[in-house]
Structures are given as C-alpha cells and as structure tokens.
Amino acid sequence: MPKYYEDKEEDGRACAGVREDFKACLLQHDCVVKEGKMPSECLKEGHCKGLQVAFFECKRSMLDTRSRFRGRKGY
C-alpha cells in the first residue's frame, strides 16, 4: 500500500509510489535491520518480491508504446 503523508514532498518522477514502498520494504525488512545485510543481498534472497515485480512492470510500461492509450502501471 502506498504511504500518504500530509507534509510530504511531491515526487514527480514516474513510478514514485511504487519506488517509495519498495525502498521502505527493503530498508525495514528483518534481513537488513537485524542481520545487517545490504538491501541488494536481501533482494537476491527474494525479499519484497511483489513490490520488485510491480516496480519493474511500472518501469517497463514507460517504454511500452501501448501505454500511451492504457496509461502507466503502478501508482
């Protein structure tokens, strides 16, 4: 779920909501916090896989010529 804050700066980049949630998921995961591993190592282990796929789909939809009609995926 996207996180909404009242006094949060607006990020105008594409896929900003998915990017923020993906980053928060990785940085707050037990793999990073308790075990002290790098977020890239936790990704290789398969943590936050759903958000990783959603972020990839959103970025890929930017290159898809059909997205002109359908709109970008993500939030």
From TrEMBL:
Cellular component terms per the entry's GO annotation: mitochondrion
Nucleotide-binding found in the keyword field: no
The entry's keywords: Disulfide bond
Keyword Cell membrane in annotation: no
Domain of life: Eukaryota
BP terms from Gene Ontology: mitochondrial respiratory chain complex IV assembly
Family of the protein in this entry: Belongs to the PET191 family.
Function noted in UniProt: Involved in an early step of the mitochondrial complex IV assembly process.
Name the UniProt record assigns to this protein: Cytochrome c oxidase assembly factor 5
Species whose genome carries this gene: Triplophysa tibetana
